[in-house]
Amino acid sequence: MSRASKRRRIPGPVCRCFRSWLWDAGRGANARLTRERQLLSIEQEAADKRRDPPRPAHPPALNVPGAVLATIVLLGLVHAVRTFVLGPAADDRLVFDLAFIPGCYETDCVGIYGRAAGAGFWTPLTHAFLHGDWAHFGLNAVWLLAFGTPVARRIGARRYVLFSVAGALAGAGLFFLVNPALMEPVIGASGVVSALMGGACRFAFGASRQFGESASEVPLLPIGRALADRTVLVFILVFFATNLATATSFGSFISGGSAIAWEAHLGGFAFGFLCFGPFDRRRAA
């Protein structure tokens, strides 16, 4: 018998088991190699990002909430129609029917002067859509951009509109309390602008706001904490001092002889500062 014939064959099941073990070992090695390559790829991507961080997206050139922009456009269109479309007589009639006239609540302006019936119901709001001239409109438009933008971003378009309407009513209300018999028309969106200023004082100026933090993300300051904040307090004092100064002859000087409805400013601001909480969607600090 030859030597070759003396070799013992490996049983079939053992051979298949050995081949299966080799196959599993190879697959395991390949899987470990694949995982290692994936980890290296992730680490490489992270290192690349650290070396060359992604550039932030460029904000739009006019980053103004649509509600604020629509407000300014509407006010501008109203004044443009009065200036370029209506004649003097029609414009006077429009102002008489839409301006807020406190004395008309005691005097029969409908029967005596032919004012539109029911004007006393809508004029506490509609007076905010009228302006004395383009400078008056432009000044209010600038303040609307400055203070309406953070307020609208924080509370949303619908609440911004409701808040602005309430600010106009509050301004007209305080003006009526101070001048109940005045027969001069009051026009302008200053009461609305002042309400937006007062509301912004509750979250936009506080010392708790971190650098680079959006004003719409900070907690709402309670009234007491807002008054204790130096920045907020200085802003309020300057606002009240400036408006009280307009009640003197200095106010007529800076306005070119036209009276400034400082009462409407103070009424709108007080409402905005004291009553912003129910309109806010964030929690108080």
Automatic annotation (TrEMBL):
GO terms for molecular function: serine-type endopeptidase activity. GO terms for cellular component: membrane. This is Rhomboid family intramembrane serine protease. It is a multi-pass membrane protein. It comes from Plantimonas leprariae. Keywords: Hydrolase, Membrane, Protease, Transmembrane, Transmembrane helix. It is found in: Membrane. GO terms for biological process: proteolysis. The chain crosses the membrane at residues 60-81, 134-153, 160-179, 185-205, 232-254, 260-279. Coiled coil: none annotated. Belongs to the peptidase S54 family. PANTHER family: PRESENILIN-ASSOCIATED RHOMBOID-LIKE PROTEIN, MITOCHONDRIAL, RHOMBOID PROTEASE. InterPro entries: Peptidase_S54_rhomboid_dom, Rhomboid-like_sf, Rhomboid_protease_S54. Residues 121-274 form the Peptidase S54 rhomboid domain.
